[in-house]
Amino acid sequence: MTIRTLAVRATLALALGASVASCGFQLRGSGGQYTMPFHSIYLGFSETSPLGVELKRNLRAGSAVVVSSPKDADAQFDVISEQRNKQILSLNSQGRVREYLLLYTLTFRVRDKDGGEILGPTEITLKRNLAFNESETLARESEEALLYRDMQNDLVQQILRRLAAVKTKA
């Protein structure tokens, strides 16, 4: 390939990139910013819940105000249950665990300030596979923690999308 061909291709790629950027193109949901249908929300998580802290941080970065009292909120996020489970997925020929299935399940609902349901009980379940080797126990524990953290981030994004999509009374 000649230098001239490379220069033409680079110029075309640069022109295409500039035209896409100048027209206002933006990926849907880019930046994790969502417009919430309510001004303020109360989160029913404990203060030390990692999921609650992450959700609060993401909501504050967007358009919603997170309040500390349910009576000051336009919407109330109630946690019905939050569970982390680990199940055996497969065994090797000696009957030892070869693979685990990690599950993270959250059930929640959203109510308005009058107690009416905006979003009925909703369950989100995330699953990840974890390969296991007895000789690498410490590494697998770190990988398990990393997978749960990844599931938590995914769960927060799914909650934000569902919250942004709810219809409130006008």
TrEMBL record:
The keyword Signal applies. It is found in: Cell outer membrane. It comes from the Bacteria. Pfam families: LptE (PF04390). Residues 1-21 form the signal peptide. Keywords: Cell outer membrane, Lipoprotein, Membrane, Palmitate, Signal. GO terms for molecular function: lipopolysaccharide binding. The keyword NADP does not apply. It is a lipid-anchor. GO terms for cellular component: cell outer membrane; transporter complex. InterPro entries: LPS_assembly_LptE. GO terms for biological process: Gram-negative-bacterium-type cell outer membrane assembly; lipopolysaccharide transport. Belongs to the LptE lipoprotein family. Together with LptD, is involved in the assembly of lipopolysaccharide (LPS) at the surface of the outer membrane. Required for the proper assembly of LptD. Binds LPS and may serve as the LPS recognition site at the outer membrane. Component of the lipopolysaccharide transport and assembly complex. Interacts with LptD. HAMAP family: LPS_assembly_LptE (MF_01186). This is LPS-assembly lipoprotein LptE. It comes from Zemynaea arenosa.
